[in-house]
Design a protein that fits this description.
With about 375 residues, the chain is an alpha/beta fold. The chain is built from 15 helices and 15 strands. Bound molecules: pyridoxal-5'-phosphate.
Amino acid sequence: MASTEEFDRIIDRRAVPGEKWSRFEGRDVIPMWVADMDFAAPDAIIDAIRARLDHGVLGYTDAWPSLEVAIVEAMHRDYAWPIEPQWLVWLPGMVSAFNLACRAIGDDGDGVFSATPIYPPFLGAPANNRRRLQQAALRQGDDQRWSWDWQATEAAMDDRTRLFMLCNPHNPVGRVFDHRELEQIGEICTRRDLVICSDEIHCGLVLDDTRRHLPIATLDESIAARTITLMAPSKTWNIPSLYCAFAIIPDQGLRRRFRHAMRGIVPHANLLGLVATEAAYRYGEDWRRRLLRYLRANRALVDEQLANIPGIRVTLPEATYLAWLDCRVFARRRGVADLSAHFEAHGVGLSDGRAFGAPGFMRLNFGCPRPVLAEGLARVRDALG
Ligand SMILES: Cc1ncc(COP(=O)(O)O)c(C=O)c1O
């Protein structure tokens, strides 16, 4: 199927229950908030699930050898990263995984660092596990590019900091951190003896041709030994509700602590998620490439429609299908106290930056058929008019 036809197809998501579209049920609001896309999952995944269902018996199941080989091969193919099957820990999601990392590392009251703005569950995870959140803001350079403020990063830490929570590629600013930035993080974590928990859920969604995702654990063996890398097929292949993710933890001691934190609390990843994961990493590459082409064109449309609107500044992502809108000037000039409500009143539902630690910003999800995106962007322009 030609790429545009495949992703242009509008599927009525209101026909089934679902978080993204149910939120505005009965209202004429286009949902461009929570991070899933309005595209059907690849046939290879649907077919694999169907074939497994045809067996009929859905009993308890652990990950199986060919699934683990698929992950080992994918890490080698995509990142030249030679991992061992025994480094894998299967999980029913990423959020549980970074909460587990907080729980596994350090003691009550120890510090967990996160840079803001950030995917909201990062901000809650330390307190959920009796740790202290230590945060510093990323900063925007003169070229509008988001990057690290190393001084603020270290100033946020103290001698009880134990864990560095990294999100790469980054949600919501869309950066794919480069070798130099990751090395600097590695240097800080080595000098301070921190464990790194690296959420790389968006690693399959790099849109810029000039950038490549680099798992921080591939920097060198000593960084790998202090890193819990978290990955999942859920964003790239649009299967988040199958709840299946995995951690790659090369160090045996760290892996043991992580597994220990799971005991009696974290269930196995579900069978259909595991089946889908194998299909995604084995057979999902062509679909992923077609998706990236489509998302690049969507990103260009966001740029075309929103680039020159007074009062807002748009960050287009290097990876992810999420654009990050700085609406602070607009909100101040127009006296808009509640940006979410303002956009919804104009027929478009965005994610509010307040939850990401960044009031005055909004996140726009452009992972949808182009005609829907065009209408959504027209509404955003109307809201800002
Ligand atoms: C950076 C990041 N991590 C984790 C998640 C959610 O992962 P899960 O649904 O597997 O808990 C998301 C979803 O948007 C995300 O953007």
